[in-house]
UniProtKB/TrEMBL annotation:
This is Cytochrome c, class I. SUPFAM superfamilies: Cytochrome c. Residues 1-24 form the signal peptide. PROSITE patterns: CYTC. Residues 9-120 form the Cytochrome c domain. GO terms for molecular function: electron transfer activity; heme binding; metal ion binding. InterPro entries: Cyt_c-like_dom, Cyt_c-like_dom_sf, Cytochrome_c-type_DH. It comes from Caballeronia fortuita. It comes from the Bacteria. The keyword Secreted does not apply.
Length: 161
């Protein structure tokens, strides 16, 4: 009897700990998360924490880009066209190639950006969620990866990052 009570208590406490842990990582954009885990995490790592010398973290700057229209377009262009050229994120340098994901649908790009900005970035100002029509408009003028890089310089400068 006594053993059973102890076991029950352990189970209940265990379940509570598990539930708390799970709610701390609520995902609002599960579709975006599955695209991210399948296509982006190989370089940017799970949760977008980045990897020195390979790919930048995505847990702070994207949330800042998302509050300006140039910054939002920059996020979309980076995913649909890729980016090439040296960049800095919080004083750390990266210089590798972000591949193009032009084959993702407008919905998938909107969803993966929503996951990055709203699930991975603690701060995103007053940014509104991305939708497919916003992404569609960004496809209008194809850019090469160097042009995307040049625009990033302007966006980062404009935001004072
Ligand atoms: C092969 C590795 C690789 C994969 C896969 C990859 N990225 Fe990247 N990503 C990079 C690199 C490298 C950079 C920086 C490029 C540079 O130095 O110009 C970057 C940059 C970015 C940036 C710009 C960050 C900034 O501060 O300007 C965003 C946003 C981004 N990636 C999102 C994604 C998303 C979303 C996916 C999945 C759909 C993805 N990446 C897949 C390597 C990768």
């Amino acid at each position: 009897m006594k053993t059973a009570t102890v076991l029950m208590t352990a189970l209940v406490v265990g379940a509570m700990v598990f539930a708390t842990g799970a709610s701390a990582q609520t995902v609002h954009y599960p579709g975006g998360k599955s695209t991210f885990d399948g296509k982006c995490a190989v370089c940017h790592q799970a949760g977008g924490k980045g990897m020195d010398g390979l790919a930048p973290p995505l847990v702070e700057y994207p949330g800042k880009y998302a509050s300006s229209s140039d910054g939002r377009a920059q996020l979309g262009h980076t995913v649909m066209y890729g980016m090439f050229g040296p960049i800095k994120v919080k004083e750390k340098s990266y210089n590798f190639k972000m591949p193009s994901f032009a084959s993702l649908s407008d919905e998938e790009i909107a969803d993966v950006l929503n996951y990055v900005v709203f699930d991975l970035n603690a701060q995103h100002g007053s940014a509104k969620p991305f939708d497919a029509s916003e992404v569609k408009a960004w496809r209008a003028g194809p850019l090469d990866q160097t042009a995307v890089h040049q625009r990033r310089e302007a966006v980062v400068k404009g935001l004072g990052l």
